Amino acid sequence: MSEKEPALPKYQLVKDYVLAQIENQEITKDDRIPSESEFSKMLNVSSITVRKALSELVNEGVIYRIRGKGSFVAASQTAIAEKASNLVAFVISGVEMYDSSYMQIMKGIQSFLGKNDCKLIIEFVENNFEEERELILRLLQSGIRGLLIYSSDPVAAKSYLNDVRKKSIPFVMLDRYPPGYPVNVVTCNNHDGAYEAVEYLIRNGHTQIGFAAYDFHLSPEVDRYNGYNNAIADASLPSNRKLLYLEKELDYDALTRQIQEGEITALFCANDKRALEVLEQLTSRGIRIPEQISLMGFDDFESSKFAKVALSTVKQYFDVLGYESAKLLFEISEGNSYGNKKVMLPTSLVIRDTVSPV
């Protein structure tokens, strides 16, 4: 893994949020911006951090204050747009806002951009591909320096990626990408991370190991499934399709029966989201974890260590994912990169309480 860079001060998150709102014309001249307490809750930062950010924005002429009434936009959208060549847009689509991993990605991106005199526009899109496509096409008209894309449907994204290429705007995809389509992408080593997790379960005596997907159409989950399969094959264990749960809706009744009848002793989940759901569903059915089944996730979300039973998982470094994506984007935009690169970042196995020997 490349050496981690120090994170930008937290107040920069508040500043960039206000600047992005102005750039997108969500707030315009003389509009009131959120209060210190509203910013604190919205961005999970302290009031002191917000105060420092707003003070800098006042000094830069972006906002002005009226005693007893709040802070208001001073700079026009046109004035902000003049700096568009120093703006990078990060489009993040289909990610639940309660998951802190996206915040770590943003901090990593900002850590790099801040050292290169660039600002970050952050655009959230709910799990709606049409909105994602329309947003990307709109951003192409704004003169931005480049695009960082975390897509909800990378295969469908090919429809707008062709337009991005025609505009000659550099872009990097994060985490997932359309298979068979040449793009610059930064992701973690999904295959090897999954292989290591399943190998650990095998070393602990598990020979009947299941796999549970969440969004099996996404490239990271396919890579994790391949890592699972290869670990099983290399241990000379038989492949058993009855242990595969590849649908979005997991059949918990069937899984519970398999556990009770001893047909499955461990389950590797394609992500922590699925693993935490499995943990909740199985314990509500009276299944004891890890006594009756060992459970392994992938991602290491912040909430995983605080689950009902602390989740064993594969950790990926979301801040490094953000940093390396911004770095690659700059290499492309400055002509220091050629061809299409797929950068794979390492993972770490994190063992907590959901795994035990057979």
Explain how this protein is built.
The model is unreliable at 1-6 (pLDDT under 50). Helix content is 40%, strand content 17%. By secondary structure, the chain is α/β, with parallel strands linked by helices. α2 packs across α3 (47-59). The chain has a 6-stranded parallel β-sheet with strand order 4-3-5-6-7-13, with helices on both faces. It has a 4-stranded parallel β-sheet with strand order 9-8-10-11. The chain has a two-stranded antiparallel sheet with strand order 1-2. It has 3 domains: 11-79, Arc Repressor Mutant, subunit A; 84-188 and 319-345, Response regulator (Rossmann fold, 3-Layer(aba) Sandwich), CATH 3.40.50; 190-317, Rossmann fold. It is built from 12 helices and 14 strands.
Provide a brief overview of the structure:
The chain has twelve helices and 14 strands.
Quote the CATH topology of the largest domain.
Rossmann fold
Largest sheet: 6 strands, parallel
Main sheet: which strands, in order across?
Answer: 4-3-5-6-7-13
Count of helices?
A: 12
Q: Identify the CATH architecture of the largest domain.
A: 3-Layer(aba) Sandwich
Kindly provide the name of the CATH class of the largest domain. Alpha Beta
Count up the domains.
Answer: 3
- Radius of gyration from the CA trace? 23 Å
Encode the helix/strand succession as letters: HHHEEHEHEHEHEEHEHEHEHEEHEE
Query: CATH homologous superfamily name of the largest domain?
Result: Response regulator
